[in-house]
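Trying the structure run again after the queue cleared.
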Amino acid sequence: MDARAPSIAHGLRELKEDEVRRLFEERVFERGVRYFEQGRVVRPFIYGDSIMAECRGTLPQNYQVRVDVRGGRLVASCTCPYAFGYCKHMAAVLYGWLKNPGMYKDLGQSEGLLKKMDKDALVEIVMDMIKYDPDAFYVVSLRLLPRAEVKGFVEREMRAIFSREYVDYLNVREIVKKLDIFREYSSDVFRSGDFEAAMDALAPVIEAVVENYTSLDDSDGLMCNFFATAMDLYGDVAAAYRLDGERRGFLSRALEWYLEAEWGLERVIMDFLIKEAGRLSEREFMLDLAELKMADYKRSFITMGPRYSEEYEYVEERLERLEALRAGVMGTVADKK
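Done. Tokens:
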């Protein structure tokens, strides 16, 4: 679950308890305090204005929590299925940072030491990391690949990650963990100003989730929550492009995902399209695009088979989606007036 707080005028190191408390419902915050006091926050790190930690919940696998200050806003995410805002795992990690910042290892200090080491020693450390956690291979590869090869690499890895015909609940957790590496890389290079690299790393991930979601057992919504976070980042990257044509291209691509998605992902994308059409001042474009798609689907009725065939039902359902999207966009226009 990704959640965004009101703007703050400082970084994590100046964060106050009353500011943190205001982010949570009281009962959620108190449960987070208990979680911290029970020692459930593990492997905590801080790097600049980012906190990374794991929190033990009710399942064998720990939840991954991250808190960042981006552009004067506090952005938090957790891999748990909680869908109502800031969760108790985020509260535990933030409360732990307030009460015992010394337990959060500062990666900035490690960075300073690494910069002083010679190449052979660094290579040995990196190889040890990959042996310890094979997923580190993705991190290393993304950083070492030439810029032009990033998109192809991500597309190949998505095919490999989703290669199984059916994925059970526990494997979904592992897949989300892998996908989050690509999302984090995209977020990092986006913040560094490389919008194209960010989009090349992120769009294939979103595409793969849309294409493969119906084969997953996402009963707790972990992949759906990850997907919502990835779409938020997609919107941020798209908004950074200066040319209207480029931004419209990203919206058009998201509309294709909207028409392809199933099992609840389509609702995430519809909310995204309505929000981003407003943020990018592209409501009229989105309305025109939806109208064109609706016209295409209606024309297909001419050559279609029986009224109650699967093909007919598919087209009818897509028309309903487009009507819902159009109503949502028109609603934001009316609200603005």
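The longest helix spans residues 310-336. Worth checking whether this holds up in the mutant runs.
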